Each structure stands twice: as C-alpha cells, then as structure tokens.
Amino acid sequence: MIWVGFVVISFLCGSIPFSFWLGKLFLKVDVRQVGDGNPGATNVFKAGGKTIGLLSLVLDVTKAALPVGLAYHNLEIRGIPMVLIAVAPIFGHVFSPFLGFKGGKGLATSLGVWIGLTIWKASLAGVILTVIGIALTSIPGWAVTLGLVGILATLLIWIPDPIFFFVWVCQTVLLAWTHRADLRQRPSIRPWLLKGLLGSRK
C-alpha cells in the first residue's frame, strides 16, 4: 500500500506554491494581483522577475516530476495507483491547501508529470506544440490544447501505454477546467500571422 502514501506525497508536493512564495520573498509582490491573477510562474515573469520567474517555473515542473518519476521508474508502480499518483500533483497545484484551495492553472506541473513518466518523449511534444500554439494564437487556452494534442499523438504513435492514456484524459479535463475562460473564446490568429496570410494572397 505504499502507493497510497505516494498519492498524498504527490498531492502535497504539487500544492507547494513556489511562484507565490518566491514572488512574496524576492519581488515583494502578490503574483495573484498580476496578469490573470494566477499564482503561477507566468505572473512572476510579468511582475518583473525573469530570474525568479525561471526559478518558479523549474520548481513547479520539478515538484511533479520528482514524485511521479520515483513512483513510476524506481518503485515501478503501475495501474490505477500510478494514474492517481500522476494526477495528484496537478490537483495539488490547482487546489493548493496553502492558498485556501485556490491555486494555479497547472500547466507547468502537468509538464512535470510527463517528464516524470516519459522523461522527454511526451513532454517534448507537449512543449513544442504549446510554443507553436502561443506563436499562432493570443489565447493561451488554445495553445495548451494544441500541446495536449501533441502529447496524445506521441502516446498513440510511440508509447501506447493505457496508464498514460488515463493520465492524459484526467489531465485534459483539469486543464480544460482551469483554462475554461479561454476556451469559451474562439481561437484567434495573431495579427502578424493574419497580416502575412492576407498579404500572401495579394
């Protein structure tokens, strides 16, 4: 029953609000008052702390990658217990008890989960497609959706493990909920790209 303890550990690790604490400690700013009000690394960057923002991002990724990687690769936990362990850090980040169960959107923590499970395979696809999505659209939620599609494609083509599919479904539901405001909007092409497309038709 060691997996039960790992679910708790994964949740607690995910719930650590590094971005909020580092913003308070080094920038003297409540990052929830910046940008979209999300206590995440993006708003640390927006608050003017590039170095602290990068540190926050790395820690938000690591707090999920470490317990998930230990459980999957070292302890070789499989099945539903592993799915619960993999999803727990995202729940912890989104519903952090340190912030009154109101946390961040869970994107960096989700990336950490895939690093823990697949090292670079699914995580690299997710990052690349998300970056492409950010370049194409000004609505972050749709960029995240494209990243999730990249991860799913990697799983289908390269590592079709049922555990990973269950994790992907749970993660997708959570990220759709945290980005629900974005997903209510239609995807919009960035002006520079739209201008280029229209210009090429002349």
What does the model show?
It is built from eleven helices and no strands. With 202 residues, the chain is mostly helical. It has one domain. Helix 1 runs parallel beside helix 5 (79-94), helix 4 (50-74) packs antiparallel against helix 5 and helix 6 packs antiparallel against helix 7. The chain is globular, with a radius of gyration of 17 Å. The model has no long low-confidence stretch (mean pLDDT 92).
Please state the structural category. Answer: mainly alpha
Shape: globular
Q: Count the beta strands.
A: 0
**Helicity, in percent?**
over 70%
Give the topology string: H per helix, E per strand.
HHHHHHHHHHH
Number of domains: 1
| Poorly predicted regions | none
Counting DSSP H or I runs of 4 or more residues, the number of helices is: 11
Largest sheet: none
Rounded to an integer in angstroms, the radius of gyration calculated over CA atoms is 17 Å
Topology readout:
Elements: H1 2-15, H2 18-27, H3 41-46, H4 50-74, H5 79-94, H6 107-118, H7 121-136, H8 140-157, H9 162-178, H10 180-183, H11 191-200
Helix pairs in contact: 1-4, 1-5, 2-4, 4-5, 4-6, 5-6, 5-9, 6-7, 7-8, 8-9
Keywords:
about 200 residues, mainly alpha, 11 helices, about 75% helix, about 0% strand, globular
Provide a quick synopsis of the model.
By secondary structure, this protein is mainly α. The protein is built from eleven helices and no strands. Helix 1 (about 1-15) packs parallel to helix 5, helix 5 packs antiparallel against helix 6 and helix 5 (about 80-95) packs parallel to helix 9.
